[in-house]
Amino acid sequence: MEKHRKIIWIGVVFTLLSAVLWGSTYPVIQLALRYYDAFTISFFRAVFGTLTIFVYYFALMIRGETRPRTTLSLPRGASTWTLLVVASVFGAGGFWILLNLSVLYLKADTASFLAALYPLIVFVLASVFLKEKMHSAQAIGVVSGIIGAYVIVALGEKANLSGANPLLGVAIALSTSFFFAGYILTSRVLIGRKYNASSSDKIISPEFVTLMTFLIAILPTFVALALTNSYHQLFQGSLEGILLVLYLGVGTSGVAFLLFNTGLKIIGASRAAINQLLFPAVAVILSYIFLGLTVNAADIFGIVLILGGILISQGFFLRRGAS
């Protein structure tokens, strides 16, 4: 029981760490959009994210990690490949483009709140499609976290429907939320799935899902970049711009997705999604540090609600030592 509890803790910590990294996405995207457009940033994230996971695999093999964790065998079966493509569109190519465009057309604070609704979507859909049990502690945690995010955005940052095209921005931001919810559910189905029906020892790992998510996304993001005549930006930009997209590709893509998928395998879709409620709080803190924005009482109250919701939800399971 104690060993099982420790494993659960690992899943919780990994998904929380991914939320911290993803919380930095919006401030960094705001800065990166000064140098590149949304399509170029998405392409960079796909390329750098793929390279990051390849480096991770290489490090595992050097250490002599046992299979199937380090296997790069391609799975058989149309259904598995369909799920991998869907996961890539939901979690990488399409998601990144929508995320960048939402910040372009709508104030970042408002866009981040609408995109942060995906834990609620996952919470509901996971119980329907994945048969994950819904508990009152989870419901309280989700509601508390979303209220906290709203308090931060509406009262703390006094965000409103402003931007280059607010209505379009709202539609894109909400689509972003549904896209990432779809990615979480699809990844949960893929992780642990057999490579083929005749294989009993090779299963699809979180590492493999993360790698294929980025690798598949390279082509559509490059096509989008070419169709919008943005490819010339690949060879432009200052050192600051390159460092920003490098961070988005390595930190908030490769590392964050790997942490999240590993935690997702351990604690399930709904609990992993609930921990992502942390990222609006992280975004506020990082915006204060790097963008010079102020933090007021409403921001602090919202952060407390978010942290309280996560503690209530995860504490319920940790006390029981169950997944």
Description:
The structure is a single chain. Helices cover 75% and strands 0% of the residues. The N and C termini lie close together (11 Å). The mean pLDDT is 83. The chain has helices spanning 2-23, 25-32, 38-62, 78-105, 108-115, 118-129, 136-156, 166-190, 206-227, 239-267, 269-275, 279-290, 297-320. Helix 1 (2-23) runs antiparallel to helix 10, helix 3 crosses helix 4 (78-105) and helix 6 runs antiparallel to helix 11 (269-275). It has one domain (2-320). The protein contains 13 helices and no strands. It is mainly alpha-helical.
State the gist of this model.
75% of the residues lie in helices and 0% in strands. With 323 residues, it is mainly α.
| Tally of domains | 1
Fraction of residues in helices?
over 70%
Kindly report how far apart the N and C termini lie: 11 Å
Rg over alpha carbons: 19 Å
| Order of H and E elements | HHHHHHHHHHHHH
Work out the helix count: 13
Give the low-confidence spans.
none
Strand content: under 5%
The coarse silhouette is globular
Strand tally, please? 0
Overall average pLDDT: 83
Structural class, from secondary structure content? mainly alpha
Largest sheet: none
**Assembly type:** single chain
